[in-house]
Amino acid sequence: MFPRKLLIPGEEIVLELRPHPVALALPALSLVAATAFAAWVASKTDGVVVWVVWAAWLAVVLGFVVPRAIAWWTSIFVVSSDRVISREGFIAKRSMEIPLEQVNDVRFEQGIFDRIVGAGTLLIQSASTTGTNAFDDIRDPEEVQRTIFHQGELNQQRSSGRAPAPAPAADAPMRPDGSSAGSAAGGSPTPSSPASPSVTTELERLADLRAKGVLTEDEFQAQKARILGQG
User: Fold this and answer.
1) What is the pLDDT of residues 52-97, one digit of tens each?
2) For an engineered disulfide with 180, which of 16, 129, 168, 205 has Cβ 3.0 to 4.6 Å away?
3) Taking the model in full, what pTM does it have?
């Protein structure tokens, strides 16, 4: 479990995952194979050879199986309201943190077997590091990708102090573009101001999030109405 004392004030954990158990498949197969081989050799011979075989078995266990098991047990992947965090290690620890505002792109890779078991590799490209950071054996990487995009959007809204625009009244007249027509004194519609370059950029970003499946159509329309209302 991620230590709550390491959270910054106001930060909340949204997603907390251990690596998928598929990460233990190779160590488990190695242990079974090494044990079966050592037992077979011990049943066919005796003397020094038996000691050598069991010494090799111990080397496999201590040099490969145990380190992989410890790495799995001590690894954790966290998406919070402010960061993406990866920690690993019991005695010697490794940690990586990527602020959500510096995440440029999130992708995932899944082979056929990965799709069957629900695991995959998450690829995060950020402005704070060089290249792309790969996180292996992530559970349901598509859902994790969607969560990171969504939290990034919420984080940006909090940073800019924006709040979702209120829904228009049911009886409010609608313009041809689908937006609500506000009324000035005398009941005449209030002319909308032209969109600035920053508003255009925001709309393009929202359209990209909708295309990636991060935002639903209703969420997209609500955010679009809010941005145009501020423009």
Assistant:
1) 999 999 999 999 999 999 989 989 999 998 889 888 877 667 888 8
2) 168
3) 0.61
